[in-house]
Structures are given as C-alpha cells and as structure tokens.
Amino acid sequence: MTASFDQLATRILDGGSASEADALAVLHADDAALLDVVAAAGRLRRAHFGSTVKVNYLVNLKSGLCPENCSYCSQAVGSEAPILKYSWLSTDETLRQAGAGLRGGASRVCLVSSGRGPSNRDVEKVAEMTEALKDSYPDVEVCACLGLLKDGQAERLKQAGVDAYNHNINTAASHHDEIVTTHTYDDRVDTIAKARTAGLSPCSGLIAGLGETDEQLVEALFALKELGSDSIPVNFLMPFDGTPFENTWELSPARCVKILAMARFVCPDREVRIAGGREMHLRSLQGLALHVANSIFLGDYLTSEGQDAKTDVELIRDHGFTILGADELPEHQPAEPTATTPSSSPSASSPCGTVSTGCGSACGGCASHDGTAGLAIRQRGAGTDVPANA
C-alpha cells in the first residue's frame, strides 16, 4: 500500500495524472495506511507550495435572508438556524473587519454576501469596498463571493481590483438536485465561466458529508479540475440545527484527511484549502491535514465560529510551516474590550462561555454527537459590536 501511493505521487511528479480509480483508492485506503497517504500526497504539496500556508479571512458582508434553498446552508430560505441576520456592511465596517484578519496574518480577504446573486448596485458596493481595501492594504488579494453573476458583473469586479471569484459547485452534478432546487448545477458552472472569462481567478470547491457517494466525491473533484479552479476550498458539512442536514454526521477525521489527499492527487498544483468544518471534523488531525492542504481560513466562518485565531497560527508554527507572504508569524494580542450587545453575551448554560443554541451548538471544545465537536453560532465580528476572532 505504501509503495502504491508513493508510486502514484512519483508518476504525477513526472508529469502524469491521477485517474478516477486512483482517487477512489485514496478514499478507500485503510485507516492504518493514513500516514502513507499523507506522506505521498505531501510530496506533491511540497513540490508546488513548499512549507507555506496561505491564510484567508472571511468577511460576511450580508448575513441570512437568502431566497435559495440549499439544504446545508444556515442562511437559506426555510432555515431556522439562529444565526446573525443583517443587511450590507458599510465600506468603513468592511475595512475594519478585513483589517483584523490581515493583521492576524491573512493575505486574502474573501468578501461574501448571501443571496441568489448581486444586483448591479450590489456589485458597485463591493467595487467600492475593494478599492478602499486596496488603498489601505496594497498587497491584499480580494476574493468576492456574491452568488450567481449576470453579464458584465465579473468585468466590473475585475476593474475594481477584485482578484478572484468564489462560487463552489458544492457537490457532483449527479447529486446537485438532491441538495438544492432553486438553481441548477449549470447555473453554478456558468458563473465560474463568467469569472474566468473576465480574468478573475476561479475559486470553486465542494462540501463533503452531504450524503454523496465516494464516486460522487471523485466526480466533483474531477469537475473542479476540468473547470480550472485555481483554489479549491474543501468544506466539511456543518450540520446546523434548523436545517435539513441537522444531526447529519457522516465524516471521521481520517476520512476528511483522505478527501483532502484525494484533492491533492487529482489537482496537485492547485491551492487546496481546508475550509468550513475543519475544527469540528478533523479535530486533532488538523495539523496532519496541513501536510496535504496548503491553505486555511483564519478564525471564524460566515455564520459559525472557528477556533481561536491564535490557535490557528500556533497550528501552522507547530507543524513546521510558515504563513505565505509573512516575514514572521504574527504575535496575537488580546483584542481591545468593547461593549457587547445582549445577543453576543455568553449563555449561562454553556460551560465554555460560548453562546449555546441547543444540541450541536457548543464551543469547539465541547463534546456532542458521539464525541464530534460542536458547532458555535458566530456572535462576534461582522454584524456585531464584539471584536472579530482574528
């Protein structure tokens, strides 16, 4: 088994490529061979990305209130997840939130808004935000994620200085209609094409744990390769209470590492990002996963909390990696205290001081669902008066 994965890596390094059968073999590898899989995939990671980790930071510009029915999403129509809901942030507030992540070590800011897709007025708002960000932080990369694009919108974002556009396919074409019906798989592919044609770097990934088969995971990865996705966020389902996928727990830490390794074998020279759900599903294997993936989000996600940003930086340091673009790893200082609103006050029922919203909504260190770390609703950063986790 060790030899076969190592031989696969050698073949790819020599100019070959992984087949669908190779990808399935990675997913089907015995857990006892996990380190062999990581060692082989790690050769590809080091060949293309050395010992660097790209750090990204999310700013949720508009939260909730989405008309799309994506079954996994806490912001979707019909979701009863008790998330923050607010309309567009101002440019000044966007700069403040983005700045927290950039000071924490991020080199890319991801500007995200809920909804089916932006109006031209929305695009102008993001263009203004991007121009302000570039004025204040000339070296920052900006990735926009605004939903389905109309003709001309990608070009306007490019003109404003947006570097990349994120629009995940989320799952295989053969599984898409099982998780959303308000738009089609082809709608998503069309938006990725619009971004690429306008000169924006296409960023598209998937969500694992949606009831897909191994074959459908492989199908999705090869589709992303064919679409030319430059960066591939690999999300692991966060089963928010109040969504159709609540109480859905299909993933183990070892399986998550294998999924990331499969992505590396299939797309050896693409940025593979460990995205939402890494703390919950990878747990103690987060560091091991960095030997396969080369990119993470810092701190919190769109509607859920991530682990402490200081812990993210220590994770990178402890595994012998450096932050891409940083001369040295940042030293995190406690955030300046600010007045909290009632909605962001810790719940007395939560032993760890995070807001508890029922089963599966404790801090990342609490146990729930047969030992799977819980899910904390974001109650800080964008849309609140509480300092961001960065």
Radius of gyration: 20 Å
Strand content: 5-15%
What is the N-to-C succession of helices and strands? HHHEHEHEHEHEEHEHEHHEHEEE
Largest sheet: 10 strands, parallel
Helix content: 25-40%
* CATH topology type of the largest domain: TIM Barrel
Calculate the terminal CA-CA distance, rounded to whole Å: 41 Å
How does this model look, in words?
- With 390 residues, the chain is α/β, with parallel strands linked by helices.
- The protein has helices spanning 2-13, 20-27, 34-49, 91-103, 120-136, 153-160, 185-197, 214-227, 253-266, 278-281, 286-290, 309-318, and strands at 52-62, 108-113, 141-145, 164-166, 201-203, 206-208, 231-236, 271-274, 295-297, 322-323, 367-368, 372-373.
- The chain folds into two domains: 2-44, no CATH class; 49-323, TIM Barrel (Alpha-Beta Barrel).
- Strands 1, 2, 3, 4, 5, 6, 7, 8, 9 and 10 form a ten-stranded parallel sheet that branches.
- Helix 5 links the parallel strand 2 and strand 3 (141-145).
- The longest helix has 17 residues, at 120-136.
- Residues 334-373 have low confidence and may be disordered.
